[in-house]
Write a structure and sequence with these properties.
A 6-stranded antiparallel β-sheet has the order 3-2-1-6-5-4. Strands 9-8-7-12-11-10 form a 6-stranded antiparallel β-sheet, sandwiched between helices. Strands 14-13-17-16-15 form a 5-stranded antiparallel β-sheet, sandwiched between helices. The chain has 806 residues and is α+β, with helices and mostly antiparallel strands. It contains 28 helices and 26 strands. α6 packs antiparallel against α7, α6 packs parallel to α10 and α23 packs across α25. The chain starts with 8 loop residues before the first helix and ends in a 7-residue tail after the last helix.
Length: 806
Amino acid sequence: MKPECTTDKAKQVEVALSAITDRPLATPEDFFQMLVQHLAERLDVRYAFVTECTDATKTRVRMLAFWSGDRFGGNAEYGLRGTPCEQVIGGQVCAYPERIRSLFPDDKDLVTLSAEGYLGVPLRDSKGQIQGHLVLMDDKPLAPQPHEIEFVKILASRAGAEIERARTHQDVSRLNQELMVLADINRAINRHLNRHDLFGTLAASLRTLVPTERFGIELPIEGGTKLQGHILSLRREGVAPTEPSILPVQGTACDWVMQTRDWVVTGSRAELREQFPVTCDVMGTIGMESLIALPLVSGGRSRAALFFMTNEKDAYRGLRREFLEQVANAVAVALDNCLTHEELQRKSEEALAQSEERLRDLFDEAPIAYVNEGLDSKFIRANKMAMKTLGITPDQVEGTYGASFIPDTPDAQRRLKDAFESIGKGVNTSGVVLELRRKDNGKPLWIQWWSRPDPSGTYTRTMFVDITERVLMEQEKARLEAQNIYLQEEIKGSHNFEELIGSSTSLKTVRKNVERVAPTGSTVLITGETGTGKELIARAIHNLSPRKDKPLVKVNCAAIPAGLIESELFGHEKGAFTGALTKKMGRFEVADKGTIFLDEIGELPLDLQSKLLRVLQEGEFERVGGTQTFKVNVRVIAATNRDLEQQSKTGHYRPDLYYRLNVFPIHLPPLREREGDIPMLVQYFVRKFATDFGKKIDRIPERMMSALQRYQWPGNIRELEHVIERAVILSEGPQLEPIEWLSSSNGKAGEGKTLTLEEMERQHIVDVLEQTNWRVSGEKGAAKILGLNPTTLEARMKKLSISRPA
C-alpha cells in the first residue's frame, strides 16, 4: 500500500469522501463502483470489492461492485465456507499480509486471481448488524498500516450506511406498494359480490407485486371430492375473465393446503412430482415452474386455496410472508362475502338472518380496522382490529369520540377538519393519513383512513390501516438524508487550513487541552478573538472523540436572523409561522449522537438562552409550533469572542447558561501574542497559495518578515492568510513581493500612541472599507477581504459605531 504523507485521519476521510460524494451518483451501484475504484487506486492494490449478505444465515454474499486492476468485474454471488471472507462476515477485521492461497486452499477464486495479500472489513448497519464486507486483495504481499486499516473501516462504515439507506428506501417503497394493493383489495371487496368479477379485480391488483402468469382460487365441491377452479391468465391491460376448471382432490397442492392450513412454495414443478402429481402435470401442460399456494381461512374454516404460478424458477422465495398473509386474509373475507351473497340469493329469510350474524362476525374478525361512527365522530361499533390498533377495550367503544385521538398540533388538526368537512358534505374520504395517539399508552400512531357516509346520512363507515412502521421509516430516512446533505456541504466548505501551526508555549497548552478533553463528553467553551481558529479547535475535539464517525454540525449564531435562529436550532412544524410550508428538522436533531458547534454563542438572544440551557441539562426540546418532545444525545462545543463572564454579571447573559457552557474552557491566544509563530504561518501560507496559483516562491525578504511580525493583526490568522494570498498573487518571481498597505506605521515600533485592541480593530475595518469604497458584501467586498461573513461584519461595525461618512 502507498505510505500516507500525513497521519491525519480526518484529512484522509475528507479527501476520500470528497472524491466519492462530489461526483453526481445516480444510483447506489454508482456509489459502490466509485468506492472500490477510489479505494484500490488510493491504497495501490489490484483488487477491491464490496458485498452484501443474501441470506439470513449470512453464509452467502453478493458483490455490489468489483474493481480488478483497471476495470470493473462481474458482480457474482458466492458462498463463504472455506474463504477468508467467512471470518469477516462473522464480525472480524481480517488481515493476511501474504500466502493467502495456502491459508485457504479450498477457495479456488484466490488461485484464479493470483491473490497474495488480503484485508477484509465487515459492513454494519446503524444497529451494529453485519450487512456485508469490504475487501482489498493484491497479487503481492499486503501489509496495511494501522491508519490505513482505520481509513478502510471508515469507508466501510460509509458503505454500510449506503446499503442501509438503499434497503430502507426499498422497504418504504415496498410497504407503500403493499398498502396500495391492500387498499385496492379492500375496495374490490366492497365493490364486487360476484366471484368472477371479484377474482378478476384481485388479480389485476396483485400483479404489480406478485409475479404470476396464472392466478386462481380453488374451492371444494361435491362433498369435497373435487375442486372447482377460478383461474385467470393475466393480460397487460384491463381485467382478464376467469377460466373455470374441475380437478380431482387427490394429488393436488391446493387440497393439501386446505387440509393442513399450511403453505406450499416451490421453485420448480419437479419438486411437486412425488407428493402432488396432478398439480405437477397441470403446471407442465401450461409451462409453469414456480408455485405458491395458501389456504383461505375465515371464521375458523379453510374455505378455499389461493395460488399463483409463473414460468420463472424460484420466483416466490423472496416474497414477504406477512404481506401474503394479509392478502390471503383479505381474499378470504372477499370469498366469504361472495359465498354469503350467493347463499343469500338461494335461502329464505331465516338463512338471511343467519348470514347477517356471520357478517357481524366477519366485521369483528376482519384483519382491517373497521369503525362505524356518528357524524360527530362518536363510535357506534368498532371491530377487534380497530380496538387493538387504537388501544381501547370493548367497554370503551361506546362513548369514545374519534376526534379525541387526534393530537393538538396544527397539521393534525387541519387534516381532521378537512376530513370532517368531506363527511359533512356526504363525500367519500379516501386514503387520508392521520396522526393519532393511542388511548392506552399515548404513543404516536399513524393510520391511512378511508370513510364512506352511509346512505341514511346518520353515520359513516370507516376503514383504516396502521402505517406507523412506514411513517417511522420515512422519518428515519429523512434524518439520514439530512445528515448526508449536511456532511456533503461540510466537505465542500471545509476550512482553508488543516492544522494549528506554531510552536509557542500558549499553542502547545491549547493542543494539550484538546487532547485531554476530546475523549470525554464534556461541554467545551472556546474563547478568543475573531480569526484565531476557534472552529478548527472544535473540529479537532470532534475528530479525536468517540463521536468522530457521527456528524459535526455547525451553527453561526451571529449569522442567523433572531427570528429564525430558534427554528434553525430546534426545527419547526409545517404551518408554525408564515413561510413554514414544510416540516423541518433542526440542527440538534441532525447532530443526534454527534457534536454541535455553536459559534458566536455570545450573540444568542436572551429568550433562547433558557431553551438552550434545557437541551444542555435535559437533552430534550420541542420544535417551533409543535408539542412533541424530542430527546437527543449531542455533545456541545461553543465559541465566542465576547467576555461572557462579564456579560453574565451585567445581566446581558444568563449566568446559569454561562456556567453550564464553561465546563472546560479553552482560550486561543491572539496572533500578536504568538509573534514567534508568524514565520511558520507565513511559510505555510506562501507554500499553499504558491501551489494553488502554480508559482514557485522560495524567498521571503527579511524586511517583510519583520514588518509582518511587528504588525498587530487585529484580524489574527484569517487576516494573515488573506495578506499572504494577496502577496503571492502580486509576486512575479521567486521572491515574495512586499505588501504596500502593510506600512511601518502599523507596526509596534515607532508608534506615537498605543491603541487599545478595540481601537485597532476599528481602524483596520475602516481602512479595508475605504479600500472597497465601503462595499461590505460580494467578491470585492470588505467581508471577503477580512474573511468574515457579511452579517458578522455588519454586527461588528454596529458595535464599533462604524458608519460611512456623509
